[in-house]
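Input record (one chain):
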Amino acid sequence: MGAVTEGRGKRGATIWYAAVGPDFRPPARGLSGFAIWDKNNDGKPFPTVAAAAKWVRAEVDATAATETKEDQHQ
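The corresponding structure, as predicted from the sequence alone:
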């Protein structure tokens, strides 16, 4: 699972960030729950939503391939 979020660059242009591998934390002390992401794009924004989505897809596919290999060895 991944996420793409919108932000603003230095000159107000739309930029995009991406993250994969959420670990959802339960609500605490009346606050809503939140996700901590296993991996993100290291703060380097993407110029388009398509580029951010492509990165998410590649990361999810790579994780799935790794998990499949691990399952085959068990």
